[in-house]
Amino acid sequence: MLTIEKLQEYGVDTKEGLNRCMNNEGFYFKMLGMGLSNEYFETLGNALDAGKNDEAFEAAHALKGVLGNLAITSLYNPIAELTENLRANKEMNYSEMYRPVKKLRDEMLALV
Known about the structure:
Layout: H1 4-9, H2 14-20, H3 25-36, H4 40-50, H5 53-69, H6 73-87, H7 94-111
């Protein structure tokens, strides 16, 4: 079950997230559910696996905005790094970099 305390254990800045949702906990939880189930997580993973870095960049950039607005810091920080690496077209294993992000997202989504 999703609680403020559980979110904090996952590295979510709940104070900031709640503030952005007018301190309405129910609304914040609803937005978290929508953010964590965002289709761009799947789009990003598929694009990275296929080596479609332009498509991956677009998905990562969109997720960066969603995660930042919800203050899901534990996912935002690695997605922001991934976004910047894709923007710079750095030569690296992006799928490997994304794997722990997807795992954490899946764990958090299971609580919603």
